[in-house]
């Protein structure tokens, strides 16, 4: 872990441990530099990351302040990446429905920019949050980047596997979302009625090289899923 | 407009004008400094903002690359702030249903951290996108910050009014979302059936001072609303 990442973690932990509230002021740059024994540029970098994450806000000429959302029980909509890792607040489990190496459909091929003949791993899972059904997830991983997958791997965090075992860096994603009515198959899996409402999310994940490597579709159980999003004015 | 903001706009415009595609490489820092006649720190700041906005991605040691989402017709879920301004792609209109100065309910008071006796402007609008119903919006503005509101002001962009006429800076927001079934009143306004699906969003907007000034509830028409969200891995 690099120096600024350590500082990021320490400042965040400090806010939690000391029960700091929204609007509470953090020490000055000088004091933070002394406290963590790092340079000003490391503090600047760490604070920018904490601001992006919605942990603090900075007011030019006035200081750095704590930002805390008030509600618990909401899933961070921007951090689906770290699904299993980040949701410390929740207990996540998966039931694997399928793991297959397949020829992608035209739609999947176009989204993932697959080359001709390129194969993808299709993974279908039912995901649980605190032992309740959270969503149906269908993912397509390019074999080019994920040469091997199995049922037992898919039972755990796939992104953890991709990052730790395969050494890939997942860098950003595009999400597309709308609300719809469940069809018969979906409602059966989610144990709901056909026609019940659902949040439908398509997500394209990119590696740090800018290449798309995973295309996923999620259908969320409307009674078991609620999300929060922290925006920063730009 | 500050120097780096100008560079942000110019680089973005340049990407659009030259039809640059995802993965296309931008000039080096040196070339950008020359091209826009600014310092390195201004370029760094501009590129960081463009990265946050999902316009580019940066690969350490390798360069700066264009990031473009492929789908049109989706609303930027993180930029509801600039609703009327940012949605150049869409035509936005509002039908004002109510503008009243009221005593806030306990729920509104708690969200906005109102002082005792503090009043709020309640604004209810039906919002249209390309002449189709987009959502029902109920907003509560603290009179402390928004001393005056009228029906004709509410017909236009309220955030534009708040920023331009009142000189306030809207800095960040917390969104909470889930999917639900429409009740009778909502379905009537949206011209849908009771029980039809809807995205329900509660949003708290903060000024640059960290003070909450607007609490809003939106109920979206499921057939006329779709969103995109660009996440950055952190």
TrEMBL record, chains A, B:
SUPFAM superfamilies: Chorismate lyase-like, Winged helix' DNA-binding domain
GO molecular function: DNA binding; DNA-binding transcription factor activity
Keywords for this protein: DNA-binding, Transcription, Transcription regulation
Keyword Mitochondrion: no
GO terms, biological process: negative regulation of DNA-templated transcription
PROSITE patterns, per database record: HTH_GNTR
Location of the HTH gntR-type domain: 1-69
InterPro entries: Bact_HTH_transcr_reg, Chorismate_lyase_/UTRA_dom_sf, Tscrpt_reg_HTH_GntR, UTRA, WH-like_DNA-bd_sf, WH_DNA-bd_sf
Name of the protein this chain belongs to: GntR family transcriptional regulator
């Amino acid at each position: 872990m690099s120096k600024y990442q350590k500082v990021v973690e320490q400042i965040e932990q400090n806010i939690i441990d000391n029960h700091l509230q929204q609007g509470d002021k953090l020490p000055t740059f000088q004091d933070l530099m002394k406290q963590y024994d790092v340079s000003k540029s490391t503090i600047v970098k760490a604070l920018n990351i904490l601001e992006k994450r919605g942990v603090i806000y900075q007011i030019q000429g006035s200081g750095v302040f704590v930002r805390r959302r008030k509600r618990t029980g909401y899933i961070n909509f921007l951090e689906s990446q770290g699904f299993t890792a980040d949701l410390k607040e929740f207990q996540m489990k998966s039931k694997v429905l399928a793991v297959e190496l397949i020829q992608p459909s035209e739609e999947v091929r176009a989204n993932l920019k697959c080359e001709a003949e390129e194969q993808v791993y299709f993974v279908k899972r039912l995901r649980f949050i605190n032992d309740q059904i959270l969503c149906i997830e269908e993912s397509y991983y390019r074999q080019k980047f994920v040469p091997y997958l199995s049922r037992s791997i898919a039972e755990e965090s796939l992104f953890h596997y991709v990052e730790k075992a395969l050494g890939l860096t997942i860098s950003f994603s595009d999400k597309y979302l709308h609300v719809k009515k469940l069809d018969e198959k979906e409602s059966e899996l989610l144990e709901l009625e056909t026609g019940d409402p659902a949040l439908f999310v398509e997500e394209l994940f990119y590696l740090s090289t800018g290449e798309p490597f995973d295309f996923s579709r999620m259908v969320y159980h409307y009674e078991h899923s609620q999300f929060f999003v922290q925006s920063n004015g730009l």
